[in-house]
Backbone:
DNA sequence: CTAATACTTGGAGTGGACTCCAAGTCAAGG
DNA sequence: CCTTGACTTGGAGTCCACTCCAAGTATTAG
């Protein structure tokens, strides 16, 4: 798979894909004889993982570190696992905060329903008076 | 309440508070004779609301728009409510995405548990052979 | 009354994460 | 063989949301 195919598949621009590789968010992609990137299944998995984590708000730094450890092989298994556990906690906390915010919005929306109802009644009163 | 008190209360720098006012994220704050900001209860409520929404990821633009409508009075009730409902949907969707990501992390963490166990067994095998 | 502190404004600078560009290389269709 | 279009690199530019600064004014403790 070449870069524009991958770009289409994931909705990332070729620039972003090259950028991710350059800064070490995804492993170096193998090239054809001519130096053109040929993405493997393994590469696609990484891209998918990284996009998922980026979308969830993980920083580039954390993911760079994770890849670096991955490339060090089995000796980093424990450390990698700990990173994932830590980030999992962060996300769980984020979910809780978002749920609170949704509740707050719900209250506010309820308040608007009340106000709109009031406004409607007022309108009816006026019409009755007329 | 003056700006540094508010700053302390919310963990925002005075700069950020002034910035939020300047760009219309919170209503203009009343001033003392000397031109010093004196934050009212009303202002504090707005700041709290805005921070909550910013933390949840709402853009400054959406909140500017919401304040603008608020300042137009009751005629914008319906429109404001719709903004809140829309943003509520966005957050609900975000929560769902985060939950999926947490699940994915859980699977990955489980995978690491397996690998670490394997590595441990291997180690034991070696020791037995010795 | 004065020194120190906190406030004001407008504008420049920063950091993260892209995003775009210039200049050059390479491969495939006509 | 030549043109077209995708690829390469390194580096500059952009956008968002602050964050900091300079220069000046106001308030407060002593």
Residues:
């Amino acid at each position: 798979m070449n870069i524009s195919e991958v770009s289409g598949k994931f909705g990332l621009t070729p620039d972003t894909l090259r950028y991710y590789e350059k800064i070490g968010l995804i492993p170096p992609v193998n090239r054809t004889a001519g130096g053109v990137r040929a993405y493997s299944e393994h590469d696609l998995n990484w891209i998918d993982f990284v996009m998922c984590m980026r979308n969830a708000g993980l920083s580039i730094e954390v993911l760079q570190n994770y890849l670096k450890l991955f490339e060090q092989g089995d000796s980093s298994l424990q450390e990698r696992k700990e990173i994932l556990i830590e980030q999992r906690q962060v996300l769980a906390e984020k979910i809780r905060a978002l749920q609170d915010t949704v509740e707050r919005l719900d209250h506010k929306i309820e308040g608007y329903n009340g106000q709109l109802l009031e406004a409607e009644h007022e309108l009816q009163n006026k019409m009755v008076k007329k």
Observations:
- Residues 77-130 of chain B form one domain.
- Chain B has a mean pLDDT of 91.
- The helical segments of chain B are 3-10, 14-22, 41-55, 60-71, 77-129.
